[in-house]
Amino acid sequence: MPLDDDVRQLLDQLTDAPALSAGTVADARRNYDAAPRPEGDPIARVEDLTVPCAHGTVPVRLYASSDEAGLPVVVFFHGGGWVLSSVDGHDHVARRLARSTGALVISVDYRLAPEHPFPAAHDDCWAAVSWLAGHADEWGGDPTRIAVCGDSAGGNLAAGVALRARDEGLALALQALIYPCIVDDPSAYPSMRENATGLFLTADDMQWFWGHFVLPGDRRDGRAVPARAEHLTGVAPAFVQTAELVHGFVARWSLMHRAHEALDDLATALRAALT
Questions:
Q1: CA 130 to CA 80: how far, in whole Å?
Q2: Which of 66, 90, 119, 261 is 20 to 30 A away from residue 219, measured at CA?
Q3: CB–CB of 73/104 below 8 Å?
Q4: pTM surpassing 0.90?
Q5: Gap between the Cα atoms of 142 and 229, Å rounded
Q6: Stretch (H or E) spanning 239
Q7: Are 154 and 85 spatial neighbours (Cβ–Cβ below 8 Å)?
Q8: Which of 63, 62, 249 is nearest to 152 (CA)?
Q9: What span, in angstroms and rounded, lies between the C-alpha atoms of 82 and 160?
Q10: How many CB atoms lie within 10 A of CB 196?
Q11: How many of the other CB atoms lie within 10 Å of CB of 70?
Q12: Cβ pair 84, 31 in contact under 8 A
């Protein structure tokens, strides 16, 4: 199948770029942070806040396109292989979500691996969701209408949080999973082998990320590897977004124009679930 024209142009530009897993964690973070990003949408409210957790507090950033009270809530977990990015790195994505859904978007600045392997990131994301379920009204949100959303590694975290919410009796409206990393076995699907190289994110990169995020002894925990969950009965409904573009396209709409369609579909699913 021929590549989308925008994707081909991007891959041509990255021909000589080092693989994410080719150097150190510091190298990967520096290269990731230096990559161009779309300009963020102007919106009514942006605030840096914290929520309490077992180890102290978790930094979050609040986004809203209006000052209204009782807004539905989308808790967003950024991608980056559990190793890269931050609320700053995905600021443009959170802004677009807030503008396109009309929701109160809370982006979680969870702890990164390898300094903080699983369950640190999961626990931070759960702390944010569980706190908002009791306190979202303090920030202008509706604690009875909460969805979780994430791209890539953030999709993994959203799926893990949805499983925990089921187990702890917290009702979520939706888990919106954008090309989520939920399988750690590189031989699980033919596409993992057929598209292992040359398409931005490689199979080696993914194993590098997984190796930093979760220790072998924790790989059977569904909160770490959601595909290994014993069952999905009672878990919040899921909107799972994949496409025959390269990984990471949703955050790169200035480079890949079809990402606009994907963002529209995502916003439609979130609005419908949170009505």
A1: 23
A2: 90
A3: yes
A4: yes
A5: 29
A6: strand 238-241
A7: no
A8: 249
A9: 13
A10: 15
A11: 13
A12: no
